[in-house]
Amino acid sequence: MSMDTDTDTDEGSIDSAPEPEVSVHQTRRLEEKEARRADRAAAEQAAAESLADEETVELKVFRYDPEVEGKEEPRFDTFEVPFHVGMTVLDALIYARDHYDSSLTFRHSCQQAICGSDALFVNGTQRLGCKTQLVDLDEPIRVEPLPHQEVVKDLVVDMEHFYDQMEAVEPYFDPDDLPDGELEEQRQSRQNREKIKTSTRCIWCGACMSSCNIAAGDNQYLGPAAINKAYRFAMDEREGEDRKRERMEIVEREHGVWRCQTQFSCTEVCPKDIPLTEHIQELKREAVKNNLKFW
Amino acid sequence: MSETYNRGTVEDVGRWTEFSAGMWAWIFHKFTGWVLVGYLFTHIAVLSTATASDPTVYNQTLSGLESLLVVRILEVGLLAVAVFHILNGIRLLLVDLGIGLQAQDKSFYASLILTGAIAVASVPTFLAGAF
């Protein structure tokens, strides 16, 4: 930038005070500037050309904003987005927001399927926007907010109820006895780690809860994610006895594990491939074992 | 969530084309279950009225029903419904025991195919002499 301003002032001085003697440096600078300008023009033209005959994808995005007059009525906006190999739904949404409509609202953060912010309803299934390749989808790609959750704006849904359910199972450790020594680790056996491994992968995206037919009709149902969270702690050998009993009591309640009717919807949509139904079923068996008495 | 804002097409039941195997299994299991409950009551009603008086009434009622083509066709349907409910019931039992949860969609398709095969195989038996 400073180079440009330099040459500009030099140019000005040529116009105002014509001098027959032009320094070697000045001609070199002018030549360089000319070359840069040509480069830039060529690059711009190339970009324009590539966008014109580039492969594009059609995106139909759900729009709704209760706070703006004229947008209270839900509608679908169509965006034509240039396609690049490896592009995800989230990339397409970001492109649409940055180039066409800056008011397009959606949550996203890490873009690598860890933060769990961008669970969306894409072509009729709950998917993680950053983990879904555009090539895998049929056009036009329909992007909607998660069903069975209240829409705040566009693709943003209210996650408060989901978080409440997650916290309802008390998702934290409470071991009975701590090891001696201040810096002593609480070890877990390899077998036990293997048992709870998949359940620890939950990213709180809410896709499972949204896909669950039972959770849709029963607001008090804990939901797959919360039950999986309970499984993660209940099955961990380091968990304290009292806390485990307390947690199992929460899970065994009317709106706990027994609401699950094994439709496998949650297991199908989970972006982290957690076998949610399997975990729910195991907790059901655990609950039976705890309560069944033959005497 | 019961008090969800109405988003029109987003939560429409018209999305049945997007249902997966487990969801279909659930819907069919509910449907066949209700059909069987309905049949049970009809069965009790018919038999209790037919056996109330003298034995000839029973024979008359039964042969009267069997002479109707609709009843013959409904019998094939009843068998199909019962077979699917049994097979999917076994599938659900295995799911409850935690066996083969990865193959739950395949076992659903298997029970569907088996139901179809048995229903087709029963057609000669049920429809013999109906036409």
Automatic annotation (TrEMBL), chain A:
Bias class Basic and acidic residues marks the residues at 28-42
Under the heading InterPro entries, the entry gives: 2Fe-2S_ferredoxin-like_sf, 4Fe4S_Fe-S-bd, Beta-grasp_dom_sf, Helical_ferredxn, SDH/FRD_Iron-Sulfur, Succ_DH/fum_Rdtase_Fe-S, Succ_DH/fum_Rdtase_N
Concerning Gene3D superfamilies, the annotation shows: 3.10.20.30, Alpha-helical ferredoxin (1.10.1060.10)
Q: Which PANTHER family match?
A: SUCCINATE DEHYDROGENASE [UBIQUINONE] IRON-SULFUR SUBUNIT, MITOCHONDRIAL, SUCCINATE DEHYDROGENASE IRON-SULFUR PROTEIN
Q: Which GO terms describe its biological process?
A: respiratory electron transport chain; tricarboxylic acid cycle
- Supply one GO molecular-function term: 4 iron, 4 sulfur cluster binding
User: Which organism is the protein's source?
Assistant: Halapricum hydrolyticum
Q: Pfam families recorded for this chain?
A: Fer2_3, Fer4_8
Tell me the segments the record calls region Disordered. 1-51
Transmembrane region positions? none
Which keywords belong to this entry? 2Fe-2S, 4Fe-4S, Iron, Iron-sulfur, Metal-binding, Oxidoreductase
**What protein family is recorded?**
Belongs to the succinate dehydrogenase/fumarate reductase iron-sulfur protein family.
Q: Where is the 4Fe-4S ferredoxin-type domain?
A: 200-274
Succinate dehydogenase/fumarate reductase N-terminal domain residues are: 59-163
Its protein name is Succinate dehydrogenase/fumarate reductase iron-sulfur subunit
Q: Where are the compositionally biased (Acidic residues) regions?
A: 1-13
Required cofactor names = [2Fe-2S] cluster; [4Fe-4S] cluster; [3Fe-4S] cluster
TrEMBL record, chain B:
Cellular component terms, GO, for this chain's entry?
Answer: membrane
Superkingdom of the source?
Archaea
Keywords per UniProt: Heme, Iron, Membrane, Metal-binding, Transmembrane, Transmembrane helix
Which ranges does the record mark as transmembrane? 31-49, 69-87, 108-130
Localization (cell): Membrane
This entry's Gene Ontology molecular function terms read:
electron transfer activity; metal ion binding
Which first-to-last residue range defines the signal peptide?
A: none
An example Gene Ontology biological process: tricarboxylic acid cycle
Q: What is its main location?
A: membrane
Please give the NCBIfam families that the UniProt record associates with this protein: succ_dehyd_cytB
The record's annotation in PANTHER family points to: SUCCINATE DEHYDROGENASE 2 MEMBRANE SUBUNIT SDHC (PTHR41910), SUCCINATE DEHYDROGENASE HYDROPHOBIC MEMBRANE ANCHOR SUBUNIT (PTHR41910:SF1)
Q: What is this protein called?
A: Succinate dehydrogenase, cytochrome b556 subunit
